[in-house]
Write a structure and sequence with these properties.
Blueprint (H helix, E strand, L loop, with lengths): L14 H12 L8 H4 L9 H10 L11 H13 L12 H20 L4 H19 L1
């Protein structure tokens, strides 16, 4: 199993992606009944579209402290509100990020079919799932 450290140049192996998935799927801090508790098989292996969702959410600079789902969504929304250089109030919307998400899904699917990258992607998915067991306990 590959251990991914911050700064590794591995596509989709950034710790922020893993942390967000752990919060969204496995953490009882985010939900009294986490998604993995409702249907663990649905997350083994970690779905590629879930990795794409997490990538879309963490596609901004990631502070060194841990973040929960609300922090990430608020950060994206604040950045969107200030992208012109002036504050323009805006609701966070999937419309703003859907194209980016589709590109990530396409990249992940291509990576999953590639002989060189598929094992790396499998290691990433296994690492996230195995870490989810730790978060659940």
């Amino acid at each position: 199993m590959i251990i991914f450290e911050q700064g590794d140049d591995i596509p989709y192996g950034h710790p922020a992606i893993k942390e967000l998935i752990l919060v969204l799927v496995f953490s009882k801090k985010a939900s009294k009944r986490p998604l993995a508790e409702q249907d663990l098989d649905a997350f083994n292996p970690i779905p590629l579209n879930l990795i794409a969702y997490a990538c879309t959410a963490v596609s901004t600079p990631y502070p060194s402290r841990g973040m929960d789902t609300d922090d990430v969504m608020q950060l994206l929304n604040v950045l969107e509100e200030h992208k012109s250089g002036e504050h323009v109030g805006k609701d966070f919307s999937e419309v703003d990020y859907s194209n980016y998400y589709r590109i990530i899904v396409q990249n992940l699917n291509e990576m999953d079919r590639d002989e060189a990258f598929a094992p790396i992607l499998q290691d990433i998915r296994e690492d996230i799932f195995d870490s989810g067991w730790y978060v659940r306990s």
